[in-house]
Amino acid sequence: MRKVPAGRAGVAPAPLPEESASRSLHAVSGTPSPLPPAPRELTVRALVMGGLIGSVLAVTNVYTGLKTGLWESGCVLSSLLAFGGLSVLARRSDSPSPLETNLAQTTAVSVGAMPASAGLLGAVPALTLLGTQPPGWAVALWGVGLGTLGVLFAFSLRRRLLEDEALPFPTGEAAARLISTLHSTGSAYAARARGLWTSGLLSGVLTWLRDSSQLVPPMSLLPATTRVGGMGPETLLLGMAWNPMLLGIGVLVGLQAGLSILLGSLVAWLGLAPWLVREGMATGANPDALRESLSAWLLWPGVGLMVGAAATSIASQVRALPAVLADLKGLGRYGEGWEATASQWVARAVLPAILLTGAMGWFAFQLSPLYFLLALVLALPLCAVCARATGQTDIAPISPVGQFAQGAFGMLAPPLPGLNVSAGAVVSGAASHASGSLWSLQAGRLLGTSASRQLLVQLSGLLLGAAVALPTYHLLVSAHGLDSQALPVPTARQFKAVAELLTSRGLEGLPRSSTLATGVAFALGVALSAAARGRLARLLPSAAAMGLGFLLPVSYVVTLCLGTLLAALVGWLRPSTAQTVQSAAAGAIVGESLVGVLVSALSLMRQG
Fold it and tell me: pTM here?
């Protein structure tokens, strides 16, 4: 992605030469020309629009995260929706400015990141699978506390990462470029919005027909006569899932990641699964029981690949840690004007955020004050690693740094699975909001938005995010159950597996021969991630994506990869439609998520 020159992207179009000359020629001698009014920035309509869009993102991220382990920051999508919504509201008032659109987008991203910060996609369902159910209100306050720490951490890193080191944060650059284009070219919005709303409507209709009317099956399997290692398609789920959300995700993850997920799935379910059955290491009285036995074994090499990739990423960022820690130590003592004032407020807000999160950790997450402080000490360098990786690669390794924290905590704390999961949740929760906030801060920097106002709206979005995400989570879990075919919760299974490995079960508790497979997968993850930093980056598969392929049902992976291939084909045939295709992909994800949650709510109402 081409880097946008600092200070130029998103600035309102410069006046034409003849316009400048005209103003100079007609100015009255001795009379200063009136300054143009400052553009609107922090307005009520921007906050309202950002809150509405962020609520949609929060619902979408809970739905997609529990199904696939993936979630979307929504920087670009919220920029598009914010422009459209503010333009509608502006029909009876002044037109929105790029800065106003950016603040609405910043608010939306903060609200939408709450499911990840609160641990609803990984740690909380993992604790439930381990037999611990934190109360909803405690999870909400826990998420608000971790989100606050993430936002403050991002603000403290803003100068070093965005200005001194000039890391690209490509998603932030893309959001700034889109906002600038939308405000300078009216036709740019129409094509993107058409793709978004059309695909969203079609996705919602298909989801209704599948989940409510049941006129569309959840998946279409290959013929029953198809056999792989003596197993039929009903055991391996060989077929295609009718989930437009997965098509959209396939478009957004890109060709390399999509094919890597497919490669991991093929190795796991068509390569290792028949061998496991043949050797008697996976058994079951029926297809569902056999598939569950296979999943329990295949989980471990999948986690090995992901943790190996995370270890390589973390190791590559170690050299920058002293400088980052120095920035944190000097927080509140640098800058001038608004920057100095905002930094001082950030420094003062850190302690209340720590106290809130620590209290909820002690009450509901099995984290005593001592162990919470230990987790917080681990969170500082690991969040910095995650932030730098996000700036360089545009991929936020949130779950991997959380599981790396689990590994470090496992060597320092008592062997309790719940305690281990909660410690990982501290790191991944803070890192979630730190990464999303830096994407927004990068867009704001390029557009000229006040960073202190961005900080304010990011903090204001936390409570709304918790109020939307928690009910959505409980609704979906009540309707479908965790670790089910409808909600595979791959991230939660990773957290749970790592915790059990490091605590109560140990290596002897793993399925037979999976210890060796996990070690080989870890080494492969390290090797692939290290090699991908050179000239082979575009040719080698992604180790983290391959690991995800081990955890997802084959039918999910097939549909996701189909979206990847369709996007690549359209991009090759008609490169000019790339932005419209991405908007359509976002619409497919949002459409299924909203209707899927609605159908779940209606189902629970009928049962009650």
Answer: 0.81
